[in-house]
Amino acid sequence: MSKISTYVNFPGNAEEAFLFYQSIFKTEFVNGIQRFSEMPVDPSMPPMPESVKNLVLHIELPLLGNHILMASDAPAELGFTVTTGNNMHICVEPDSKEEAQRIFNGLSVEAVITMPIQDMYWGAYYGTLTDQFGINWMITFTAK
Predict the structure, then answer these.
(1) Which of 11, 42, 120, 126 could lock 82 by a disulfide, CB 3.0 to 4.6 Å apart?
(2) Intra-chain end-to-end CA distance of the chain, in Å
(3) Beta strands 88-93 and 68-73: pairing type?
(4) pTM of the entire structure?
């Protein structure tokens, strides 16, 4: 089933924020809290700093209706800078890989592609961009 979610980046306090949100919305995390330490090791990349390993790689919390709030930490040690404006994304999850590609292609007109849409190690077909109006988008399809 198609859905749209909100994705937020935090400078290292995603878990704290989501525990707070969980206490308000009284819902459970979808698939728990994934940590940077769970990422596969990429031999072409430098080793992950110890200070990053326990940070949140991905977390999802149902809010109201079918809306999901998702997030990750964006640690400076990995080259991220979280500022108002780059910390929010609209995440579109269509029903098919073809629809994900169509939406990504459409939004790509005069956009800045931050990650080309492609098959990812976690099983999704995923890409990100900032559209011509400055809105950040994540397009993801995961076969069920």
Answers:
(1) 11
(2) 10
(3) unpaired
(4) 0.71
